[in-house]
Amino acid sequence: MTTLNHLINGEAFADSGRTADVYNPSTGDVIHQVPLASRETVQKAIDAAKAAFPAWRNTPPAKRAQVLFRFKQLLEQNEQRIVQLISEEHGKTLEDAAGELKRGIENVEYATAAPELLKGEYSRNAGPAIDSWSDFQPLGVVAGITPFNFPAMVPLWMYPLAIACGNCFILKPSERDPSSTLLIAELLYEAGLPKGVLNVVHGDKDAVDALIQAPEVKALSFVGSTPIAEYIYKEGAARGKRVQALGGAKNHAVLMPDADLDNAVSALMGAAYGSCGERCMAISVAVCVGDQIADALIERLTPQIQSLKVGPGTCKGLDMGPLVTKAALEKVTGYVQDGEAAGAKLVVDGRSLKVADHSNGFFLGGCLFDHVTPEMRIYKEEIFGPVLCVVRVNSLEEAIALINAHEYGNGTCIFTRDGESARLFSDEIEVGMVGINVPLPVPVAYHSFGGWKRSIFGDLAAYGPDGVRFYTRRKTITQRWPQRASHEAAQFAFPSNG
């Protein structure tokens, strides 16, 4: 068993304080220990970032982009190492981990366009002999707090763009599966990043609170559960920080009577059970418009869920691995028990799943509920596991009202062949990311990711154009050079261009 270190000022930094265990969820064994940073350790990272900022902000954007180009190459060259670490510590399949990494690399590609993204705006003769222009300047020291379910992709949403904009970054990754995150950060230094521009500190709430309370940290990015997102937003905003905090979800898929059922079933299988349901964009509710489509969906889903290939994530050819921790397994099975007790029909029960030679792993088979109602806890709360709930309604309007009444508004989709239904749905639904016959409408890197309602706190979404605006602040300069041999009297009226 190895002990991981922090990465501060470009070097490994050992911490002799508290530690947490990192598990292989397929076996239940402890494979690493990770230090939980003290406030002094967090401050050491902040000091390193603060010291690096003046030189980095004055580094031309094209040179920053060159570092990111080399970083992208190193990520691609080390794909197998990174993917193996993700699967070992998170449990997701190798194929799923590879897909996660590729989506992260797309964000690095976007950040390499820093010279274009940071171009300002210019107006000549905005007034008589007056020129005006705006540029976008970095904030300084910024921080990101990232979740266990995407240890590669979500950090790559944050710091490549932040440092491309000229900031210095402190990353607090999940302590549950930090190895891939740490390796990726080390590769960025191998690509030529100056010391102190990126720092990684492992930790728990103490480290998070230290980042929130540090006056040197100007902005906080977060992805995780809604209660923690709301806490970080309120505490950060109260201290004058810029905050983007992405929270939980309860994503609905609406199936119209005219849906292409074969494609819808395939899409739902991947969207509900991929990564063991541990995705903020997972589809966890299928809203069927009419009993006929609901009965047909249940009939087709049932044998496919029962035949899911489940095993250690590091084995090839699997559909699903384990949940990330024993606590996560107990939480999800608790929801299944609660759904039964509330009167929902448990069509497929994954609790009986046994994986050969892995009796101590955190495995749960796919579960399927029918006749779920909005009053049930399994409908209202984010389960974050391989559980799909089927809700029956009588019309598209009823489906839209149902979704709009939910506290979360992260992602949703509709399966239909009818353009009028699709347009009505996309216009009226109060959700930030919408798919039309697309089950996981995760925007590509040159758009931005973010939900509505209690799925996000803050005005700007993650990565893409919103990410550039989040990690910069606009400065507008108005300039006038008086003509020679001229003198103007003082003017006391407010200046205008009239």
UniProtKB/TrEMBL annotation:
PROSITE patterns assigned to the protein according to its UniProt record, in alphabetical order: ALDEHYDE_DEHYDR_CYS
Organism: Pseudomonas duriflava
Occurrences of domain Aldehyde dehydrogenase (ranges): 16-477
Origin organism lineage: Bacteria, Pseudomonadati, Pseudomonadota, Gammaproteobacteria, Pseudomonadales
CDD domains per UniProt: ALDH_F6_MMSDH
Any one GO molecular function term: methylmalonate-semialdehyde dehydrogenase (acylating, NAD) activity
Swiss-Prot/TrEMBL GO biological process terms: L-valine catabolic process; thymine catabolic process
The enzyme's E.C. designation: 1.2.1.27
Listed name of the protein: methylmalonate-semialdehyde dehydrogenase (CoA acylating)
